[in-house]
Amino acid sequence: MMLGGRPWERWEDHVVVQQLEDAWGKEPRAALRRAIKDLGDKFGCRSVLDVGCGVGIDCPACVSAGMDYTGLDRTDGMLAAFERRNPGVRVLRGDVYGTGMPDGSFDAVLCSDVLIHVPYPETVLAELRRVCRKVLLLKLLYIAADRTRVTVDPNRGFFNIFYEPSHVVRMLKTVGFSEVEVRVVDAVDLANQTDDPRQIYLAVR
Fold it and tell me: Which site from 3, 68, 93, 102 is most exposed, i.e. has the minimal number of CB atoms within 10 Å?
């Protein structure tokens, strides 16, 4: 099983990188920023690993929350955009399936809109639990009204996985998180996928 190599995806395409950077810059992130602030205020986190950090859109919020920030991504295009947006901030090359970090090396792990694009989510969650010392902050873009379903973006080759919230909680508990706080954001109508409701989870190790 070739977890690290996903040749159908187009994360390296500079056009795709620019499209995503523009989209992420316009997306409302107030709820996520509040959750990031809670990592420091509520959980006492002083370091954070942003797994699948992309262009580093959440880096400023983490730094403002008083945490030592490290970004992690696997693609040249995203890493180059990150360094342009966040000069001097630590960012490393790595994969969500195997970060290469020591056990418990960060107080917090942030994983924003990554799990929706990977075909082996429990493998990813187990790796995130391994490297986090206190809490995982997980954000997902899509909600499934009644069951998990999968689509594929024909232009970019991405998996798009729609999770029902109780399924996410079960996966987090399965890989060993002891407590899970669920914050469902903008879920006006779970059956209407055009609303793009968000999910935020705080999973305590």
Answer: 102
